[in-house]
Every structure is written in C-alpha cells, then in structure tokens.
Task: structure prediction
Amino acid sequence: MTAEKITELTQHQRDRLAFIELRVRFVGEIRRQDLVARFGIQAAAATRDIAQYKDIAPRNLDYDTKGKVYVRGKWFRPAFEFPVERVLTWLSQGYGDGEPLRLKSFVSCEGPALLNKPDLETLSVLTRAIHQKGAIEISYRALSSGLTKREIVPFALADNGQRWHVRAFDRRSGEFRDFVLARIADAQIVTGNVGEQETSDQDIQWNRIAELELVPHPANVQHPDTIEAEYGMENGVLNLRVRAAMAGYLMRRWNVDCTEDHSLKGAEFHLWLRNRQALYGVTNLMLAPGYEPSEKV
Result:
C-alpha cells in the first residue's frame, strides 16, 4: 500500500516527502522549518507534508514534545528507495535530495562505479551518531585482525577517491582512525557521555592543514604547460590546503610523486610534490607514492 500511495503523489510532493525521510533516517530528526528552508514553502504546507508522510509510513516518525521536533521512530522502515551513491552525494554535498524515480541527467554521463557500497542502515547509524555527537558499537572487518567489536566516536565522513570511510575516535586503540564504511558489518548507538579526549577538536591529524605545492613532474612530463592548464596552475604551481589526515589519500589518488628527487618513473606520474617538508608529521604517508618508511620527512 505504501508504494501505491507514493506513486499517486506529484513529483513535488515526492521530493518533499523523500526529504523528510532522508532527514529522519540519516540525521535522526526533522522540523517544519527544515522543509520551509529547503523548499521555500509556508509552515502550514510543511505541516501537511509531515502529516502526509506519517500517513504513508505511520511508524517512522515520533514527536518529541520537549524538543518540539519529529524524531526517527523505533520501528522505522524506509518508504523510499535510494541508491547508495545518491545518499552519499546528499550527505556530502547537500543536494540530490529529491525522490529519484523520475530524475535523469541532461546529457549522457558515466563515471567510475562504486565497487564497495556501504549498507544504508549502517550508514544511518553513523550519520545519526555524528549529528548527535554520540558513540556507537560496530562489528568491523580489518585486514590485520579480522572481525572484531569495538566502540568508536564518529565525527565525519570522508571520500578518499576509492572508498568512503568514517573518521572516528577508536576506544579500543585510544586513537583517531579511519574506518572503511563497507567493512562495518553492524552498528548500534551506545548510550553514555563522550569524553573530551574523544571529540574531533582533539584529532591533531584532522585539524592540521598541510599546504602542498604540486608541479608538473620534471622527468615524466615533456610539455608541462599541458599539465599546468589541466590543473589550473598559477605560475606553474597548484597550491592545495588539505587536512593532514587526507593528505596520503590525495597523493595516492592523483599519483603524486613524493620522492625528494622526483625519481618515480611512469606515465601515470604527472605531478610532483615540490615541498616535501609540508608532509612533516603526517601519519598516513605510507599511502603516498614514493614514500619510504625509513625516511624522515
């Protein structure tokens, strides 16, 4: 019956009701003002939309009288189906929040497939914990230790170009780490307070900004002006400011030669990191092309 009710709606109604579900599923709450701000409608219309969504999925919303906000119901079951890629786009870029059935691209477009797709219910636990600044218990599959249970305090999602991960404080190791979303087998909200040492402002690698200078590779590029134009360089340099926690991922994604003497050979190495000293103290340098563990950067 739910599917039949959805098909009877106009596209504008589907967009607004899908937005309600996305907010509740992945943030854990929605207010009338969220609809007013997103769609430019009146408060009375937002009230009708929420009532209509409750008619379609009566167990998905509960009203918190103290906070005056609609929250995710205990027996929540999604009424709309969304591709994982679309949800991640909405979470990371703030658009793409319409109901997807009738939407098509204006021109033919193709992109690399997302090979390791995270489970959306697990993702919703993570995003709600991030929004609520809480902790979760996860079952995690690591290459080094296999399947283990641990408690983490997540605070941000990150796309490293190949896969999505969550940045979190790991209570098991006492460190801030990256957890690949698709390796999380199960996740549950944990009650209790989060310690000051577990919050994002204590993550040195996340808060530190590395200023990088990328230039055309001196040995592998015969026409550096081509690379300068491709990357929009100014005076032959692409200046980037990135989080230290993301620096290694960026170097690997763009095949940036990080050796001191630009000695990596191969047609894939178009860029060279000119100021290696900017990597001092970055902990994920094992991901950077040309990094040698014995080196002291």
Observations:
- The first helix runs from residue 2 to 7.
- The two ends are 62 Å apart (CA to CA).
- The chain has a mean pLDDT of 90.
- The chain has three domains: 2-93, 120-203, 208-287.
